[in-house]
Amino acid sequence: METKQAAEAKWSHGKTIPVKNVQALASDAAELTEEAIKRYIRPARTSDVVAHSSQSIPIIDLARLLDSQTYRLEADRLKSACEEWGFFQVQNHGIPDTVLENMRNDLEHFFRLPLDEKNKFGQLPGDLQGYGQAFVESEHQTLDWCDRLYLVTQPPQEREMRPWPTTPASFRESIESYSSELMRVTGSLMGIIARNLGVELDRDTYANQALRMTYYPACPVAHDKVLGISPHSDISILTLVWELNLVEGLQIKRQDAWVPVKPHPKALVVNVGDFLEILTNGKYQSIEHRVAINPHKERMSISAFHLPKYDMSVGPISEILAGGELKKYKTLRVDEVAKVVFSSKLDGKKTKEYAMFSV
Ligand code: OGA
Ligand code: NI
After folding, report:
1. What pLDDT band is residue 9 in, cutting at 50, 70 and 90?
2. Tell me, what DSSP letter sits at residue 86?
3. CB of 271 sitting under 6 A from ligand 1
4. Is the C-beta atom of 304 inside 6 A of ligand 1?
5. Within its chain, how far is the Cα of 271 from the centroid?
6. 8 Å CB contact between 289 and 233
7. How many CB atoms within 10 Å of residue 101?
């Protein structure tokens, strides 16, 4: 009994307004005018504020982190990536090529299915999981230029299989393998992040995982007036993003400019989420980011969000506070925060601001 109701409470949100499938909208080239896509057009051009600097996010080597000979130096690099960037790429992650290839092939196959086929695994009213769009609460909201397949993947007992696609036939297995590889990489990174912070972190702190598999169609008519994802920070502890067809689009906010992240064929993008910022009392910041759209190329990515168990309470860890340092964030139960965030009651406020003590 408990499980169904609890699952509903965890993932349900208010009424989401159904909107058009973006891939279908974009595929009708004759219809693709600014008027036809006016619900996606933003007041400010999205290309105005992109930094053309040579800055690029740090690259961390997981094999070096796991080797006692090279550990110290690489762990220091990870520490400064967390402190100074909030974003980094991880290479030598050890995920077998076959796991990545199967996942890429099956996800591309799925996105190419006719809309009716994909909709068999569509979001149901009040559920975030399945194929569909992000939460839409108003007819006036500017929409994101993407469709997504969103699934809760870990721990296994939290899975609800209905929205897991069965076409292609190997897809569920591919998701399962990808999901567990990402749990392993996350476990390794979190272990070292904890050591860098000088604390023990319970595995429950990153035991929940959800995958957001996103399809961003090309937008030839107005690519610099639409966004694939509006500026946001992630509610996670740690997010791992795979830019699987290597099309650029992700941009991070740094010194008031948007810095593009260049996809790396052998690396995943990792970012600090709001809950890690809260745990570290702001020593590691969860950085705002967004996704820009290419005029000619479709883009696909998979974000893996890792979250603490829902019945945990998360707040700044006392041991890492310097003498006299005040807690900037409240200690809140994860399911309470998730409920507020997923029902979009934050009024545009981010999770971390919701948790922050007002000054
Ligand atoms: C996200 C996100 C980035 C991307 O899903 O929260 O920021 O590259 N995705 O798709
Ligand atoms: Ni994000």
Report:
1. very low
2. S
3. no
4. no
5. 9
6. yes
7. 11
User: 């509006």: which residue's tokens?
Assistant: 230
Q: Between β-strands 87-91 and 238-242, what pairing exists: parallel, antiparallel or unpaired? A: unpaired
User: How far, in Å, is the centroid of ligand 2 from the Cα of 284?
Assistant: 16
Joined together, the tokens standing for residue 134 give 């992000």
Taking the complete model, does pTM exceed 0.85, yes or no? yes
On the 0-12 / 13-18 / 19+ scale of CB atoms within 10 A, 43 is exposed
Taking Cα atoms as reference points, which of 284, 224, 233, 234 lies closest to residue 37? Answer: 224
Index of the ligand 1 atom closest to the CA of residue 243: 8
Whether 301 lines ligand 1, by a CB cut-off of 6 Å, is: yes
Q: Which ligand is located closest to the Cα atom of residue 268? A: 1
pLDDT bin (cut points 50, 70, 90) of residue 348 is low
Which protein residue's CA is at the shortest distance from atom 3 of ligand 1? 250
CA 256 → CA 48, 50, 101, 225, 356, distances in Å? 12, 9, 37, 19, 22
Instruction: Report the distance separating Cα 15 and Cα 181, nearest Å.
Output: 34
**Residue 350 corresponds to which tokens in the numbers above?**
């981010």
What six digits make up the tokens of 296? 């000619």
- pLDDT band of residue 297 (cuts 50, 70, 90) is very high
Q: From the CA of 300, how far away is ligand 1's center (Å)?
A: 10
Amino acid symbol at 337: V
Average pLDDT over residues 329-358: 76
Q: What is the largest CA-CA distance in the chain?
A: 65
Give ion ligand 2 contacts, CB < 5 A.
234
Beta-carbon contacts of 103 under 8 Å, excluding residues fewer than 6 positions away, are 174, 175, 177, 178, 244, 302
Which atom in ligand 1 lies closest to the alpha carbon of residue 301? 10
User: Do 87 and 74 meet the contact criterion of CB atoms below 8 Å apart?
Assistant: no
